[in-house]
Amino acid sequence: MFQRQYEDDADVMDEHGDVLARGYTRLVLTGEGTATNWHGTFRVTEPPEPPSVEGERTLRLRGGQEGRARLEATEDLQGESAGRAGTFFEVTGVGPSPF
After folding, report:
1. What span, in angstroms and rounded, lies between the C-alpha atoms of 60 and 98?
2. 39, 92 in Cβ contact below 8 A?
3. CA-CA distance, 9 to 23, in Å (whole number)?
4. Among 20, 55, 80, 92, which has the highest number of CB atoms less than 10 A from its own CB?
5. DSSP letters along 40-78, please?
6. DSSP structure class, residue 81
7. What is the pLDDT of residues 2-45, one digit of tens each?
């Protein structure tokens, strides 16, 4: 079994390659044998009120590497699903790891 971690700036892009939100991501790649998976979090830093980034999106890392991931908004302290700057999203890789 192995584990690799990645932390840096990242962009969430739509299916046309347009940036929906910029932020910071923390990702973990784990594997055993030939099977690997990756997951982590993405925190929106801009714009203040981005369009929806939930669902399957492309995550582009600072170095330009890209990977497909499913993003799901976490709940804020009041128990509401947020979508503004400062919101955290759970990230689950749906393809090869970008790191």
Report:
1. 8
2. yes
3. 6
4. 20
5. EEEEEEESSSPPP--EEEEEEETTS-EEEEEEEEPB-TT
6. B
7. 899 999 999 999 999 999 999 999 999 999 888 899 999 999 99
